[in-house]
Amino acid sequence: MVGVPKDIYWAPLRQSLVLVGAGGLVFVAIGLTLAVWFSERLARAVSDASVAATALGRGEPPSPRPTRVREINELGRALLDTHDLLRRHDANREAERRAALDARAEAEHANLSKSRFLAAASHDLRQPLQSLMLFANVLRSHVSSSQAVNSLMHLERGLDALKDLLDSLLDVSRLDAGVVNPTLEDFDVSTMLGPILTAYEGVARSKSLILEASPCSATVRSDRTLLARMVRNLLENAVRYTEAGTIRVTCRVENEHVRIAIGDTGIGIPADHLARVWEEFHQVANQERDRNQGFGLGLAIVRRLSALLDHPVDVQSTLGQGSVFTISVPLGIAVSGQAQEPVSVAPLQEVQDRFAVVVDDDAMVLLGLTTLLKGWGYHVLTATSADQALERLEESGRPPDIILSDYRLPQNTGVETILKIRERFQTRIPSILLTGETGSEAEQNAARHDLHLVHKPVTPRQLAAIIQKLAAPD
User: For residue 264, how far is the Cα from the chain centroid?
Assistant: First the structure.
């Protein structure tokens, strides 16, 4: 037996193992190389998709690059579709925004046009109404038969109703024009509520209604006159739309506010009318437009005053059972020495040897004022312009005891006319400035020179009260 050396026996096996190991290493190296190459391409594709998604987030159009990876390509197409969808959505939203702005501008323009119309209409109607009211009062002393007195009474009631309408239109137009500036003060709310309740007691009694009011001595911070107007309007509605039962006025302190509530047992408000009752001329259950039920402007004025004073007003109502309107007024700081309640003024008594100057370019108003003042015992000098008034005063040589002038005159304003007459006699003559205008110009000029401004039409009783106040010694 011939022996084989071990080296010869194991040599082929070692060579095979070396070849297999080397080949494995080569395949591993190739696999790693391919893996790195594919991972780099995949990373670039994912990075491109990330950049595209980031651009989409900024609102920019994404730009995904095409790859050989189907899922990445689908992601890129999804980003492009999303961008198109967002672009259409933004375009629709912008169109809606522009449409809303256009609608708002159109509504504001329509509201401004309405306010201008109301202001112009009320001004043009005030002049003839003023003369009618003056002459109706003058007629009283010339009417004796019961039939004529009754007819005159109905005439005056009709004129009063027309005056109320024009006054409400004036309030609406002035509030819309922004010329009403509230004067805030701290005051006991009972000093404001007391005179209002007293004024409506008789009206409620005439309808067999019970008017109740709970004691309220809280101090509020508000504009006394404007808040009183809100309460009067709400109480007026409560009396008007209640045929039987009780009207209650209460107030309570709640969350640093005083809540003044006016409740009634009237007809109530249907749910679908609750939002509309604040609109001008809208009235519940008055399709026939019965003027005895008002004009539908009271709550419109309340809404505007609520916004002006920042006194929220809410309403709760049950059809057939009644309504409760509540005003929320901020609490004030209690102060001593509250203002006294206003005292009613008696009609002007006849005077002796008093001299009045009346300046107005409307012949009928001029004649009406002249006749009224003469009936009260005044000597009256009339003029249609400042120059004419000064010329006739030179002839008279007597300084007037009071001046009544329209605001809008030929060549001059009533303010300038009054100032010229005062300068002529070197004395501060009591003066009344009459106007049918609704803008702020007359108010500002009157306030600047401390003149008493009166909006036409003014009733003879109101005019008498103003003259009596101006004639009273300081």
Answer: 26
